[in-house]
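S.,

As promised, the inosinic acid run. Input:
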Amino acid sequence: MINYQEHLEEILISEEQLKHRVRELGQEISSDYEGQDLLLICILRGGVLFLSDLMRELTVPHNIDFMAVSSYGAGARQSTGQVRITLDLTMSISGRNVLLVEDIVDSGNTIASVLELLSLRRPKSLKVCALLEKAERRESEVPIHYRGFEIPNKYVFGYGLDLDEYHRNLPFIGVLRQDEASEFADAS
Ligand code: IMP
Ligand code: MG
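Predicted complex:
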């Protein structure tokens, strides 16, 4: 697991493309929230690189907070549909404009559960910004208000997304080699 090269089928989204799209999203969000209060909530851990780059593209003042949920069993590469909160927010979201910042919406189960939970805390508004979407795999209906890229149904890693908890630091989004991906098909 030290070298990522042997697991990489291809680079799907380059560093340049990520930079460009994150800038566009930042501009869109800044214009939508102009003059309003904004709280970004990052879902750990996959969303951290996206959050930190997105924040730097925002021209509106905002707070950040973090939460963690677990949607994966060890070694499995597909969401189980069961989500457990492992770290809760430190801030109250009541009456606030909340924007959830996620790395990827795959089945949609994770974000659907998080939205359900957060809406009980009565935010003024609750929207979703996801860098990646695997539309083909959708099981739960979730609104994605800001979306970076729609991607095919392949396991991807890099730019916050992990391959068995490694390689989140890569500056691009890479696709896992197909022969490895099939080893894990229906693992959960
Ligand atoms: P969902 O509940 O199926 O939408 O899964 C969402 C979570 O699964 C994401 O926040 C990621 O942490 C993880 N995930 C889904 N697909 C991938 C992938 O291709 N690479 C890395 N993580 C993934
Ligand atoms: Mg995630």
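The chain is about 25% helix and 30% strand. The two ends are 21 Å apart (CA to CA).

- D.
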